[in-house]
Design goal:
Strand order of the largest sheet of chain A: 3-4-5-6
Helix content of chain A: 10-25%
Number of strands of chain B: 50
Largest interface: A-B, 32 and 28 residues
Distance between the termini of chain A: 31 Å
Structural class of chain A: alpha+beta
Strand content of chain B: 25-35%
Order of helices and strands of chain A: EEEHEEEH
Helix content of chain B: 10-25%
Shape of chain B: elongated
Distance between the termini of chain B: 108 Å
Largest sheet of chain B: 7 strands, mixed
Oligomer: heterodimer
Number of helices of chain A: 2
Chain lengths: 88, 1010
Amino acid sequence: MRITCPHCGPRGNDEFTVLGAADPVRPGPDAPLAGWVAYVHERENLRGSHRELWHHQAGCRAWLVVERDTWTHAVIAVRAAREAEQAP
Amino acid sequence: MNAPQRPAAGPASLSRPEAPTQRWRLKQGGLIDRGQALSFRFDGRRMTGHPGDTLASALLANGVHLVGRSFKYHRPRGILSAGPEEPNALVELRGGARREPNTRATQVELFEGLEARSQNRWPSLRFDLAAVNGLAAPLLAAGFYYKTFMWPAAFWEKLYEPFIRRAAGLGRAPGSADPDQYERSHLHCDVLVVGGGAAGLMAALAAGRAGARVVLLEEDCALGGRLLSESESVDDRPAAEWLNGMAAELASLPGVRVMLRTSAFGLLDGGVVAALERVSDHLPLPPPHLPRQRYWKIFARRVVLAAGAIERPVVFGGNDRPGVMLAGAVRSYLNRYAVLPGRRAVVFCGGDEGWRSVADLAASGARIEAVVDARPEVPQAQAQLAARLGVRLVAGGRVLGTQGRSRVASVRFADAQGREEDVGADLLAVSGGWNPSLHLSCHLGGRPRWDERIHAFVPGDLPPGMGVAGAAGGQFTTHAALAEGAREGVAAARDCGFPTNGPDIPRAEDAPRELVPLFHVPHGRGKAFVDYQHDVTDKDVALAHREGFRSVEHLKRYTTLGMATDQGKTANVTGLAVMANITGLGIPGTGTTTARPPWTPVSIGAIAGPHRGKRFRPARRTPLHDWEAAHGASFVEVGLWYRAQWYARPGEAGWRDSVDREALAVRAGAGVCDVSTLGKIEVTGPDAAALLDLAYANSISNLAVGRVRYGLMLREDGFVMDDGTVARLAPDRFFVTTTTVNAGKVMQHLEFCHQVLRPHLDVSLLSVTDAWAQVSIAGPNARKILEAALDPGTDLSNAALPHMACTEVSIGGVPTRLYRLSFSGELAYELGVPADYGEATMGLLMERGAPFGLTPYGTEALGVLRIEKGHPAGGELNGQTTARDLGLGKMVSQRKDCIGRRLAERPALIDPMRPVLVGLKPADGSAPIRAGSHLYAPGAETHTANGLGYVTSACFSPTLGHPIALAVLADGAARVGQRIRVLDPVRNGDVEAEVCSPVFVDPEGGRPRG
């Protein structure tokens, strides 16, 4: 599997580690406990396109949002998490 | 009759050294080097062959057809094929530590001195006692694993399993470590061509001439594929001549790399191809500095699959007897290896392909006893050939069985009218059609498609970037292979930005390939094998159907069809056809066989590559490692690090003596410990404090410059993740330490907090773990030692450098960071110098510290000191404890957001009955307490529901003179002073302990402030 790092170009997957779903948003500090439990523990098990957080651990150390097809394993899009977060 | 005579064979001839004869070698032809003889042994018998031979062809040249015994029934087996699909001719190669089981004799290139042995026979290949398994066959039928031996249960281990292990099986793994080297390597190219036959060569030529970077993989030792085995011409020249020209041109193209003896065995995600190069398998020993095998990961923009096709055997009674051979393999032995596999042959086929063997056998001097063609109407060309050769043609016939002890002696067949007849023969060439080698097209989930034209599966939807050419796509003529190869090569090159029109297509044979379905002859004589290697018969398939295992996936698992080391290359489609015949649904309606990697078995050595033994993972050594080794340190692995565990001195009887001495030296005078392995991170920038406030449970932003704070890090689910210290070097500059094992994880976590959670913060993170040699100097004399060692002018008084303060000093002129903090509970400092100065600094410290009793101590004494002091470490930070559990609940700041704060408030995590940190000491004052033991109220029944907690760390306290332990205990604070039962059922430990405060030494905490 190859991931095109926005900083380093296409690299083998052995340079990366995966964390999990990218979409859950961290609740505010005083949000109800249920929201926090959902943020930490509840995940969809999707077939198809899925946005995930990957870390270019053995590369530029950037956290990336990788959009990936869980059925074909095709990598659809890659963005740096910082930019994804700051996008309007 | 000018054919060679079969040598006299009998059990006696196996052990008797025999003159090299090669009596079955043809007088001329073949791609072998007759000028050189290679000597080899099979089951101890010495024989010769020639360079260019495989072990299989050399055995056949010496008249050896019986080469192994089958998996379950111990039936005599011979050589079925001439390639990687071989299910029968599996041998043990080499000896000792290099012994290699289940090697396909059809792929083993002959070398001088080769040693091979047959497998799964006892006491000898010819006379095998376990062949009576054939009589017990009903017990070993499909699903025997699951039913026959299940009752009574106690018999399984003692009786049934040993019997099956003895009776069934293949080769033996070597008993000692592999002495050879293996490598892993990467390769990048535009166009990867898999297969160096007619199609692959044209694809490589087309793309190579266009200027693309091309890699051509061929698993054989020579280019050519089937052209090496057929008596054909290309461009009106002998095929061998054309191949030489192609090889020369490919070698001259700078962007083309041809890799022989290299199998593409898997298509991985993203189109990465995994390949195995057998660098030295064809040599007696790997040459100096070369590996035995190399595992390649190939990154190609386009892949052309030109892997050819595999001929199918036919299921009929006795179809496994040595002497039954695929018709295409017969031509390989005749034309490529110049070996006559038999002198009286019967050919059994369902179409025109088999007739090519009729012609070649006749040309080599064999007598054709009969051609049994399943077609009722045989085309005129073949009928004419039969007439010309004077060969008996049985149109619409079928072979019912074979006879012979360890080799075919006669063949029984029936004609179109059902009249049965036996004919004497020593070779039965079989062709049931060809299955495209589409395996790579399936590895990413692609499903093959049934092609009625060739009665075989062809690649269905192709993975992105892959094209298929030639026989792999079901086009079996040489012309089609050449044309499709060129077409796919051009297309792949164009896709990579190298426009080209492609080479001219050479003239080559383009005869039609008529074929009728010929998979199975039911109701024959004797066992009819579908999967030779796993001894699965047509009756097993029928039994699976009767018992309801009708889906292809169930059929496979119930009968183990296709699950042997050959992965059913000659069995899967045939097995499906037998099942389809029973279901009446036709093959496409019955199911699809697909393929997973690897194409052929890959040795564990190749997968491991260089990563074994000491190189299994990197070893990290601290800057002080050599100093420690020179001073008697024993080392322990902590993550990747090697840490000094203790320093043995003469006269010390065991490790406890050393550890007790070191710990007491710290409490009484001073000790020095290498703490360079702690993770170290510099956090800089205007928002550094804000990021650390998020990451740590306690506040960091209110830490003054020049001060150090203990920092506690939680996971977002509220459990403790790591702890360490945070030193503020400047308003916008922090130096953070982590535990040794969590250093990488904490760095990654801080980067996550920054880039994902707080991307707007202006902060940068830098791992500086390897930049610093860091030591802890602990004990009442620590200050005096530093005063003696540091360059003059440093004020170490409590006023200038109080507990939990840091400053910059110099030692021997080297800029040094000094942190006053204590893990041992004594007056202590940590001293950080640039890594290169570590050893010199250590020498200076030891010299100046000697008068004050400075003693090096290792991780064991460090552990004793911190347990005595009740500091949580690895045993307590086990991922199941909260800050509150460890008595650190007050550290979690309620005034700010931080990772883990909210979920640490979950009701279950603040339940007063949760186990919390306590100390334990043996009630009798001496019984050792072991870490991992479980805690019960005295008198309570010892089952899980009554468990009150567990011991997290334990040691002998030299300071107190008795064992102590840290534990987490339900309602622990209320139980201080009470007795508790400490149960260690795994190691038969059962002692009573008294619950106490976890701080055993200096509970007031005055010493580090002294």
